[in-house]
Amino acid sequence: MSLLEVKSLQKIYTTRFGGNQVQALSNVSFSVENGEYLAIMGESGSGKTTLLNILASLDKPTGGEVFLDGNNIVKIKDSEISAFRRDNLGFVFQDFNLLDTFSIQDNIFLPLVLSQKPYEEMNKRLKPLSKKLGIDEILPKYPYEISGGQKQRTAVARALITNPKLILADEPTGALDSKAAMNLLKIFSEINEAGQTILMVTHSIAAASHAKRVLFIKDGEIYNQIYRGSMNNDEMYQKISMTLTVLATGGVKGE
Amino acid sequence: MNKIFYPKLALTNLKKNADTYVPYILTCIGSIIAFYSMISFYGNKGLDEMPGSTNLKTILFLGTIVIGIFSTIFLFYTNSFLIKRRKKELGLYSILGMEKKHIARVLFYETVVVTIVSLTLGLLGGILIGKLLYLLLLKLLHFTTPIQFYIDGRGLLITAGIFLAIFFLTLLTNFLQVKMANPINLLRGGEQGEKEPKSSWIVTLFGIISLGIGYGIALTVKSPIDAILLFFVAVIFVIIGTYALFTSGSIALLKVLKKNKNFYYQSRNFISVSGMIYRMKQNAVGLANICILSTMVLVTISTTVSLYVGQENMMRDQYHFDMLIVGENTGNDEALVDESIQKTAEQTGVNSIDQINLRLGNLTAFLEGDHFMPDLVAKEDKDTNYYTTKTDVWLIPLEDYNKMSETPASLNENEVLIFSVGDNYNQKTMAFGDDRFSVKEELQTFPLSNKKTDLVGKTCYIIVKDEGVIADIQNNLYPDNNNKSLLFGKFFNLEGNDEAKLAFSESVFQQVEGINPDIDKASYYVSLTEWYSIFGGFLFLGVFLGTLFMMATVLIIYFKQISEGYEDRDRFEIMQKVGMDKTEVKKTIGKQILMVFFLPLAGATVHVAFAFRVMAKMLAAFRLTDTGLILICTIVVTLIYALIYALVYWWTAKAYYRLVK
């Protein structure tokens, strides 16, 4: 069975006062296998973020179902949703979302503390992780004292420390310079190799070219997908570029 | 660019930021009203006629200083809050091509507008509200009090001067902020991560010591006179201690908690402790302000309410009998007085009961060891020191004493009985010049008086063998005084309704005045009405100032809630994304806010608890010695204040949650 299964997902936003309806997702179905590294690409407004928010259980779809490890996350009760998110999902955001009242170490500990893990265990998990991510030296520092790349690696550490089933990344390289971005993508590849399932939403070709599979979304629907197969990153980059060009020029329905 | 551009921009800015600037201007106006009212009360000549006006003036003067210092701190604090909020806006101007001097010009015009509006409304408000309150006071007391209300020109000038200086200084700090920042910094100013606050153990220690000294003074004060002087020394120490402990001590304490890993890494403590560290850094000064203000409100209102409520008992302690008339035995004065009492009693329907008539001698002396030294102080040299050290001596023949006492006594040659008001005489002998006496017994009860401390000077009643001894003593002490006849004294209670008693007292006073103006007369009911007006005045002052302080407190809390709201909005979102559910986040933040806001109230309560002794002593200076009553008044006032505080919190918390959502 797939780790994540998305079945004919639909999301319609209705403006609060008028009958104006905006269809963000019309019919999205796909599945993610254990250990996969999936990138979802699309223009601004294509529905990527809506999709991610639904997967993250931050938002509810108007139709369709999402199964994570066999559990329908659309049906989870509001009172349990936070605990579910904490235990099963790890998040990496474009703007890091670190709390400036906490040191780097405490930011990473946050989800564990919320699950009431003892300090010894938290510490045991942190040591190898921080070493791997190269942030062991900045643990006592505060978010405003470190660089963007370090902040994002901190966010990755925070996402990984709960041993989640799935990492959800929303434009993780969006706020980083190219060097820091490459560094982060390398880390993503490494943790994926170690068995971590990753789902990344991005419109950066460089970022997507590290994934094993790339899904393209346009106007709320899945338009195309590319498998890496035996391609290296550069070949993958070429292929994604070409697909995007087709998507942008010839991909209009009814023409 | 034409000249009108900058003032116009400044006005637009103020309108756009009305959310925060309206409360700021209100704060300024409030401070100015408070300061002007204080200083005009201080400069009020009418108050000089009030008994105890020196102490009152001292209190008002220190009150003026306290309000001045407070206004400065408070306005600086609100101003820095405002400018921090607006950094982004200023950064935008800078990016759009305004030079720093142009921004400075905009800031200048903004300050000019704020200054003009605040000073005009503040001073007008000070005059009007003051006048209004004055009228209210008169109505409240049904009397013309000595507090004459007038427009204090000097006070207006001083107030205007001081607040102009404060506004000028805030403008300078704003200039400095703009000058030091670059556009990018200005743009990011609002969201720049706060540095982790440093806790200084030295400052904390300093705060503890300072608070300790303040509390120490408060706990060891002995006499009421010391209490009034030292109270303000203690206040200064406590204020310093409060600021130091709120700013540094709180953070030091939280850091200790943070070091304890098993405590800190619990989900309920984790977010609270680190959140509190940051909240305390940003709020410490504001919270210290609230704490000190609350203490002032509590102390002022508790003491004045105690005075007002306790005055009947205070008067009762002083007036063992409802009326007393003491005069020289010349002519047929005594017979005329008796006649007048009887006649008036019939007219007003009041009975005089428990009447004691006796002969007695009176002199003032200074007691040194067991020697009563003659009082040779010239009339114009009689100062506070004179009145606090002299002893009033009443000499009563044994025969008269036995008439009024339930337990008749006998005396041998050169023996006396003594009843000393307040502390015991505690000596076996006494001497008036060459006349030496041995004290047969020190009485603990006495028909004419009670043991309650007499605060101004000392009073003692000495019972001697006969009238001859009294004449001897007077001759010995004051050989030049020819007027040594014995006095007649009449002590009696009244029976009837209160109005009739007052009418009786006033009528008898008038008639006695006609018989001989030198006759001393006192009536509990006449004094009570006089003192009602005075303590009513105190109560009015206390509640007036209390209300002002309270208004300032409300404003600070409002500002705090707004700034907390802006900052917590982002934090609130992140925590939800990381896996905290909504109710949990709301609960955690709610708890922190609650702690932050009720810390000052707790601090104020502790301050008041320590100040209680001094308060009681100070009230003793106004002859209020009933500690139980003061305690009840203080507790009731504190409870009511806590209730109002909670309401204000609840009301502003709504503004906070509106921002967070």
TrEMBL record, chain A:
Gene3D superfamilies: P-loop containing nucleotide triphosphate hydrolases (3.40.50.300)
UniProt-listed SMART domains: AAA
GO-annotated cellular components: membrane protein complex
Residues covered by the ABC transporter domain: 4-244
Metal-binding keyword on record: no
Top-level taxon in the UniProt lineage: Bacteria
GO MF terms held by the record: ATP binding; ATP hydrolysis activity; transmembrane transporter activity
Keyword entries, A-Z: ATP-binding, Nucleotide-binding, Transport
Membrane-spanning parts: none
Keyword Nucleotide-binding: yes
A Pfam family per the record: ABC_tran
Family: Belongs to the ABC transporter superfamily.
Name of the molecule in the record: ATP-binding cassette domain-containing protein
Phylogenetic placement of the source organism: Bacteria, Bacillati, Bacillota, Clostridia, Eubacteriales
